[in-house]
Amino acid sequence: MRKIYFLLALAFTACGGHQPPAWDVAAVRPKHPWGYYSGQVEARWENDGRHMTLLSELHYTDPDGVVWTAPAGSVVDGASIPRVLWSFMGGPFDGKYRNASVLHDVAYDEKTRPWKQCDRMFYNAMRCSGVSPTEDL
C-alpha cells in the first residue's frame, strides 16, 4: 500500500513543470499599468453629424482586470468630453481620446456601474491611450 501512495505522490510531483498550468494563464500575463484594449473603434456617423453608431465591439480591460465593453450597435455622442473643451484639447472622437470616450459614453448610457467606477475607467483608459496626466480632464 505504501508503494502505491509513493508512486502516486511521485506521479503528481512529476506533473509539475516550470510553467504554470494552462488554466492559470492569467498568472503569466504581463501586468499593464493602465490596462489594455481589444479591438478598435469602427463606427458609422449618423446623419445628424453628432452621433456615431459602433459597427463592432470595443473592449478595455482595466488595471484590475475588469472588462468594459462597448457593444456593436451602441450610439455615442462624445458627451464624455464637454463640448466647450473640444477646441482646446480636441474632440472626443479625435486621436488619443477616442477609445476612452466611446467606452465612457457607453458605460454612462448603460447605467450598470456606479459613476465613480465609470469615471475611473475613463481616466485609466485615457492613460492607456497615451494621454498624459497634464492632458487628462
Describe the SSE topology.
Blueprint: H1 2-15, E1 36-38, E2 43-45, E3 52-54, E4 58-61, E5 67-70, E6 75-76, H2 86-89, H3 98-110, H4 115-128
Antiparallel strand pairs: 1-4, 2-3, 3-6, 4-5
Helix pairs in contact: 3-4
The SSE order reads: HEEEEEEHHH
Distance between termini? 69 Å
> What number is the mean pLDDT?
79
Number of strands: 6
Please give the radius of gyration in angstroms.
22 Å
The major β-sheet equals:
3 strands, antiparallel
Strand order of the largest sheet: 1-4-5
Shape: globular
Q: Which class of secondary structure composition applies to the elements?
A: alpha+beta
Classify the beta-strand content into a percent band. 5-15%
Low-confidence stretches: none
Helix content: 25-40%
What's the structural domain tally? 1
What is the structure about, briefly put?
The protein has 137 residues and is of the alpha+beta class. The protein has helices at 2-15, 86-89, 98-110, 115-128, and strands spanning 36-38, 43-45, 52-54, 58-61, 67-70, 75-76.
Give the tags.
137 residues; alpha+beta; three-stranded antiparallel sheet; 4 helices; 6 strands; 33% helix; globular
What report would you give on this structure?
This protein has one domain. With 137 residues, it is α+β, with helices and mostly antiparallel strands. The relative contact order is 0.14. The strands form two sheets. It has a three-stranded antiparallel sheet, covered by helices on one side. A three-stranded antiparallel sheet has the order 2-3-6, covered by helices on one side. α3 packs antiparallel against α4 (115-128). It contains four helices and six strands; from the N terminus they run αββββββααα. The protein has helices spanning 2-15, 86-89, 98-110, 115-128, and strands spanning 36-38, 43-45, 52-54, 58-61, 67-70, 75-76. The model has no long low-confidence stretch (mean pLDDT 79). A hairpin with a 5-residue loop joins β4 (58-61) and β5.
